[in-house]
Amino acid sequence: MSQKKRVLIVDDEMNIRRILQASFDKNGWHAMIADSADMALAMLERESVDCVLTDVTMPGMSGYDLQKRIAELHPETPVVIMTAFGTIPQAIEAIRNGAFEFVTKPFDLDTVKKIIQSALEGNEPKSAKAKAKPKKASGDAKVERAFIAESPAMKEILETIQQVADSRATVLVTGESGTGKEVVARLIHTLSQRSAQPFVAISCAALPETLLESELFGHEKGAFTGADTAKPGRFELADQGTFFLDEIGDIPMPIQIKLLRVLQEREFERLGATKPTRVDVRLVTATNRDLQAAVDDGTFRLDLLYRLQVVEIHLPALRERQEDIKPLCEHFLAKYSAENARELATVSDEALALLHAYPWPGNIRELENTMERATVMASSGEQELLPKHLPTKMRTSAA
After folding, report:
1. 18 CB-near residues (< 8 Å, 6+ apart)
2. Two domains, one topology: 6-130 and 318-397
3. pTM to 2 decimals?
């Protein structure tokens, strides 16, 4: 008979401790209780637990400080934070500091139990994790090939990507169209322990609401007219891997509610299904919209925004990172010269001055298209990109 999982409940309110303890015991776990962070730490010195659920506001040491201490002393023990809705930003900071998840008060018992179950399922011995962890072949080389960063801003972003890649935290990538948001998402996946698993991407703006819901969550046979067979959704296809939701700001409100449930409970229901499907997915989202403004005008849920922006990476426009223009040009010239049997490899000083003067409304995507055009327009044997290879609008904008 397997040993019961041990969950430590830390809360200064007796009624909450009793309710959670009774519910956890009924769920088949061994629930332990502490009325303060100091008491919890003392208990952890004497015996091990599989998960800690702690309130934030308590006499003496706060739940946030307790989480930091546990991260230092017992890094393999997941900690779930209970917090009021108004202090969610602090709870997100706790996740950045290593907390497993947070739940808001007043809480729903079923939601709490599902989050604890997810924490317990992920709480393997470090030795087992080490065995399961796939090797990252030439990680630094992968970064070099996928991410060109000469500007200080982009080097800082690269450091952030490398830091968060192996975590389970959701990442929101923001920036203008064409700045490389999907490149960031793919790099996070490549550098993570999920790299051997699927990377699944979808644009929320590309599909109407009815199709988007089916694409995300799947459907059962007969769920709607034309559903002749059951079909798994993208969340199922991305199980154990990374799911990239582009243009998240365009997702309709009813689907926002379902997405929030997936993030909170790691489960969803296919259209027409009667039973939930559990998934383990790392979610990376992207948008070129101001989501806080969307919250203010009532088109985006604040609680969903909190869940999505545990880590936020903002990509600057190309005009704001001019140090990257030359290496990006050379990268694309090498790519398209090989494809088009040309020899363009470097950029002349005159052409570079024009490229720096241009405002790049289409960002890196426009730069790539410009370099592809240049290789096509270059004559055989030409090795240097000259002003004549650039579109007229770039040659005249600096005049």
Report:
1. none
2. no
3. 0.77
